[in-house]
Every structure is written in structure tokens, then in C-alpha cells.
Amino acid sequence: MQQTQQTTAPVQNSFWAGFHDGVPIGLGYLSVSVTFGMMAVTGGLPVWAAVAISMTNVTSAGQFAGLSLIFGGGTLFETALTQFVINLRYALMSLSLSQKLERRVGLIDRMLFSFMMTDEVFAVASGQKGEVGKRYLFGVMIAPYCGWALGTLCGASGFLPPSVRSALSIAIYGMFIAIVVPVAKQSRAVLGVVALAVALSCAMHWVPVLNTVSSGFSIILCTVLAAGLGALAAPVPDEPS
């Protein structure tokens, strides 16, 4: 009887391999978080508060939305609900990535990984062929985390010259465009959701009565409505088992 030999990909558990994969992400985060630091200080937050927000949140969209709510006089409930809606995807990413972790990875390590989870870190880690260990994940996450905090400090403290800070002030828009446009070009459904979200956002800003809704609830309504209608109009088909 001929036996078939099943080969499995080796576990990726090298810290330096993870650090090598995380450095480009960290450099990108550094440039974007400079903008957050500048906006936070310009709005009246002290430098230490801006850095503390970045070190305890690690979420670009959530932090920028949070600044809008803080400076706009939003309530704690609006802030909490906005952060929940915007950052809910990280919970799904963490659950998905947990299926690739070595069984030896403990609960405390998994909690740390979920805290430092970002879109780019998830993409790099989940793209590994085999299982991933905790040393690799710590290597991937340490550069983005440090880059995000260091960029915030540079932007908030005025360490960079005005010309550089002015150039980096549009980095956040470039990052969002770089994330959304390639996916929207490949999928009509995503393009439709993006267009619907833009239309809803414009309506919440210009249409009478709707423009009286606070910025926090505007973000929530636009996000939930656009995503919900997109899911109904173009559901993702189940993969054959």
C-alpha cells in the first residue's frame, strides 16, 4: 500500500524575522501619527496626553475620530460607542489570527497581541504559510507600536521643523486613500459601500435636521448604514466545505 506523505509548513517563531516584517509598518505609522500629535496639541491637549492616547489605543481611525469628539464636546457615551463601532474589526481580526497561533501561546500573550492588533499587522501575520509563535508576533508588533508612539511624540512636541510637519499633515489622508482605493478598484461592492458612506456623510453635514446630529453619532450612523446596506446588497458567498 502506497502511503502519502503530508508536509506542513514550519512554525514561524523567529523574533528577528517578525521585527524585519514589522519595520516597514512602523515607519509608515510614524509618519501618520505625527499628524495625530500635531492635531491633538493644536486642539489643546498636552503632549503627555497625546502620547498616552497613542500608547493605550493604537488605532488611527479611532484616535482621529476621538479627537473630533473631544474637541466638539462629545459625550463619553458617544466616544465609547464610536470607538466600539470603529474598532470592532480588531476583535474579528484577533479571533481569526488566533487560529494560526501555536497552541503553546498562553492567554496573557494572546491578550497582548489583541491589544496591539492593527490592519497591517494582521495582514502580515495571517499571510504566513504555517502557524506563528509568540516571538514572531512580538517582533512584528513592537516596531509599529513604537513607531506610532514616537511619531505622536514628534508631532506633539514640535520636534520636527514646520516644513516637515506641514508635509506630514496630509499623511493620514494618503493612508486612507492607499487602503481604500486598491480594494475599491477590485470590488464593485466595496466601491458601492465607499460611495454610499461618502453620500451619507455629505447628507449628515448639509441636509437640514440631519446636520444637527452630533459628529459622533454621524460617524456611527454612516458606518453602520453603509456597511449594513452593503452586506444586504452584496453578501459574501459561503466557501464550499
Q: Any overview of this molecule?
A:
The structure is a single chain. The chain has 241 residues and is mostly helical. Helices cover 73% and strands 0% of the residues. The chain is built from eleven helices and no strands. The chain has helices spanning 15-42, 47-57, 60-71, 76-98, 107-115, 119-126, 134-157, 162-168, 171-186, 188-206, 215-233. Helix 3 (60-71) runs antiparallel to helix 4, helix 4 runs parallel beside helix 6 and helix 9 (171-186) packs across helix 10 (188-206). Residues 1-6 have low confidence and may be disordered.
Number of DSSP strand runs: 0
The helix content, as a percent range, equals over 70%
Elements, N to C (H/E): HHHHHHHHHHH
Class per helix and strand makeup: mainly alpha
β-strand percent reads: under 5%
**For the CA atoms, what is the radius of gyration?**
20 Å
Sheet with most strands: none
Q: Uncertain spans, ≥5 residues at pLDDT below 50?
A: 1-6
Number of helices: 11
How far is it from the N-terminal to the C-terminal residue, by CA?
Answer: 29 Å
Give the overall shape, derived from the CA principal axes. globular
Compute the average pLDDT: 83
Q: Quick summary of this structure?
A:
The chain has 241 residues and is an all-alpha fold. The chain is built from 11 helices and no strands. The longest helix is centred in the N-terminal third of the chain and has 28 residues, at 15-42.
